[in-house]
Write the structure tokens for this entry.
Amino acid sequence: MARPLALTEQTFIDFIARCARPLRPKPAVGIGDDAAVLNLPPRSQTLVTTDLLTDGVHFRAAWTTGALLGRKALAVNLSDIAAMGGQPHSCVVALGFPRSTTLAYARGVARGLADMARSHGVALVGGDTCAARALFVNVTLIGSVEKGRAVTRSGARPGDHLYVTGTIGASAAGLSLLAGRGRPGPGMVIRPTASQSLRRRAIRAHLDPHPRCAAGRALGLTGLATSMIDLSDGLAQDLPRLCAASSVGAVVSQSALPIDRLATALFGPGKALQLALCGGEDYELLFTARPACEPMVMALSRRLSLPIRRIGQILPRRAAIRTVDTKGRYRSLPAGGFEHFRR
Amino acid sequence: MARPLALTEQTFIDFIARCARPLRPKPAVGIGDDAAVLNLPPRSQTLVTTDLLTDGVHFRAAWTTGALLGRKALAVNLSDIAAMGGQPHSCVVALGFPRSTTLAYARGVARGLADMARSHGVALVGGDTCAARALFVNVTLIGSVEKGRAVTRSGARPGDHLYVTGTIGASAAGLSLLAGRGRPGPGMVIRPTASQSLRRRAIRAHLDPHPRCAAGRALGLTGLATSMIDLSDGLAQDLPRLCAASSVGAVVSQSALPIDRLATALFGPGKALQLALCGGEDYELLFTARPACEPMVMALSRRLSLPIRRIGQILPRRAAIRTVDTKGRYRSLPAGGFEHFRR
């Protein structure tokens, strides 16, 4: 039986502090003072990012566990620091819990956050918590990057190759299953051959994403990436953001897209392509590099045991952003993705 | 007529970006990339603090304006950086808006945040926003402090003098008026002589607090303060926190407390004392200094044109924390203040 939340703010802060204790880098002053004091690496620039997960908007509390929610709340921020080529350092968290939250769920969130932090060498140095009408988790992550080495969205140039790490579409496939309570979302048909194990793995991909911290850091430190963004809202939204910031166009080869085989096995190739383009939350890295750097990008891929696929090329802005299929037909990138204030 | 919130996430982020534009220190990379890139002062330590304001818990949307809410959301964080003796630098904000929020209210929040940031030389460098069941604002503020100069809660020693900046009790008096919709809260009686202007000023003190940034910075840089905390939850909660962190006791002279004359004029001396001790949100600084530093503390007070009152003394831990009245009677500090998860 789940116990109802019977904890004071202080008790919960104490619990988070206990979870967070054995972390490096040890802050000079951690949880318990007016502010945390951090020793960031000298001669570096400071990175800051913040992401908000709200019940009913970004997730549903009933679909996930406290621990997975805590992990994901930090993971999405780690992905942002990775996309800048930075090293994550310390985080603070603001948590809003409805009064109906069970103690087990709340502790799970804290434990998930602390576990994710520990496995990425991030210190959890402060936070704030309160009663709220809907559960939310807001993590702010501080990182560092060597001076002038941050990889922004604005450095892509015509001729650059366009790459994506890992595979895309599995998270959206999992979300579709969750939204349909084990059955597919509207307009989706699960293939009769799809096993329970496939379904579970797609759902796991959605609930417990793995940010590409090592790849982002390596692409930044080596100077290989000329521009980079993480795929949080899907290629169809994130590629246009990168192109707009860089004032360029792009062409994406459909056949080169690393569509996750979970998505294909569950929903067939047509829907899987749609999930890979318009679904979000893969937290893979989309980046550009000079054509001459292709061998080094591939060497990095082998070194990290992480597939990195060349999916297209950067073009002048007037070329717009298009996809090309195997028959050489060009199409505009489909609009799509998630918009919070859409009614 | 208030227009309903008809804005996309991107529109609102653009609006915040416009509000935030003319700020110094200019971030190396500001709003619009995966993370902001900051140039913090060299040879400094980094400060991080986060504070959450939630409708129905920390404030009521109907009692305040968007602009005042935005100001306060940053002010409470500025107060935390001040209490460490630090210099605020850059902030990020996470905003949750119910779908019923008007565009004017949402823009007010952004404008209030940006105004407060500008007047304290803070850059608004990023954020996240989404639909939420209850309005909330979560600001994370990054600051810096010269290496080893952060003023923690743990440096007070027996014999140190105990000081408070400004006056206390006005914010709690204002909150009491708001809670009673212009009439006083439960157990409170407004004096018949209290004018509308007094009421308005007390309410303003609650809705638009002024953090003691210059005083905190000066107390840190000069090394005068041996320990410091900001009065966010009231003396009766914050002094025990400082004493616990420093492993000391304290005695507070009731007659020395700088009780705000708004509180006294509105509710009489007895209730005003209670508001000053147990009310919160004054965002004044409570700090300790060596007795020999008394002349320098007073010189600082004159220099900043800010009253700084010596209200007591730090004692060994076994002496506990007590108040003493004009007749020499000792009492335990009254428990009180705000606890979020209390039912």
Observations:
- Chain B touches chain A through 73 residues (CB under 8 Å).
- Residues 1-7, 337-343 of chain B have pLDDT under 50 and may be disordered.
